[in-house]
Design brief:
Oligomer: single chain
Structural class: mainly beta
Largest sheet: 12 strands, antiparallel, barrel
Strand order of the largest sheet: 1-2-3-4-5-8-9-12-13-14-15-18
Radius of gyration: 23 Å
Number of strands: 18
């Protein structure tokens, strides 16, 4: 709407001004440290595989309850390159899990594909000029449980592509603060039935008075805004306990910039021995374009859709190996 344009311009100008001030301060704060430390091995490759299980079995149990079984698996590949002036970090994260309660069907409880890569060029001892690219989707259909006949998500429905340019502040080797006033986000909804409903923020289909579709819903949504990404890895207990956290905040300059999209991901791993690991994964998401249906009139059908904070927590004990 026209009366919102000034506020959007102010938000965009504020991000750009902050970016310019940051770049200027980086060059002015650069010290005359002539100590050059080039790592012996510029490339570092890591692999982490985790498989966790949990089970409850009951027979003639007076206190009541139901048997259950669940299994989750995850694989994370990481690569890091660093020399005197350049750095390049990439991550591939794959996870899937199912659970069964009683005699019901298996229900998916985890499903994600995440790929991110970030290149940095040294600006000072703690600042890099950086570019960040990311991709996120899922493998298999998701259903509106307990109704397992209604698909609400699928492979590339949604699929998220991100590209951001900015500055990366690294006060230590374990912490990174990436600031980007120039960030683009592309949402893809490959399934036409979901696109026709306007799922994940795309423009929904147009229908006539008889309910006949006149125009297909759009399969893509483009957003331009500002991104902040904070990541950290914190080892404890001589490296036997590791907390990994990542916080992403995105503001869309083009529509409702005050509604900040949020992804807050935390993984706590406790190494029991060389094979077994206890793992706690917690994820919080708020996406202004991901609406959740609510039945307000009690007829069994969702008639009101609003964005809500999404929460997920997975805890398990299983095999965890790294190489």
């Amino acid at each position: 709407m026209k009366h919102n344009l000034p506020n959007k311009r102010k938000t965009a100008l504020a991000f750009l001004l902050f970016f310019l001030i940051t770049v200027t301060s980086v060059k002015s704060q650069e010290t005359a440290d002539t100590t050059k430390k080039v790592p012996e091995k510029p490339w570092k490759i890591t692999n982490a595989l985790s498989i966790t299980f949990s089970q409850v079995a009951l027979s003639n149990w007076v206190a009541g309850g139901e048997k259950s079984i669940s299994g989750n698996g995850s694989y994370i590949f990481g690569s890091k390159f660093k020399d005197e002036n350049n750095s390049w970090e990439s991550t591939f994260d794959l996870a899937y899990g199912q659970t069964r309660q009683g005699d019901s069907k298996n229900i998916k409880n985890d499903d994600r594909i995440l790929l991110s890569t970030k290149y940095g060029r040294k600006a000072s001892s703690k600042w890099n000029y950086s570019i960040l690219a990311s991709f996120r989707t899922q493998m298999l259909p998701g259903y509106n449980y307990p109704n397992d006949s209604t698909i609400i998500s699928d492979w590339m429905a949604p699929g998220y592509f991100g590209l951001s340019i900015g500055m990366d502040y690294k006060p230590t080797s374990q912490i990174s603060v990436f600031l980007s006033p120039l960030s683009g986000k592309l949402t893809v909804v490959k399934r036409q039935d979901l696109a026709d409903k306007g799922s994940f923020g795309v423009d929904k289909a147009t229908f006539d008075g008889m309910g006949n579709k006149i125009k297909d819903g759009k399969n893509t949504l483009w957003e331009a805004g500002g991104l902040t990404q904070i990541t950290g890895t914190f080892p404890f207990n001589k490296g036997k306990t590791i907390l990994t956290s990542k916080l992403e905040l995105f503001s869309n300059y083009l529509k409702d910039p005050q509604n900040i999209d949020l992804i807050f991901e935390n993984t706590l791993e406790v190494k029991i021995n060389s094979w077994f690991t206890a793992r706690l994964f917690a994820l919080a998401i708020y996406d202004d374009n991901s609406k959740i249906g609510t039945d307000t009139d009690g007829d069994g059908t969702a008639d009101k859709y609003t964005a809500k904070l999404q929460l997920k927590e997975i805890f398990g004990l299983g095999i965890g190996v790294k190489w």
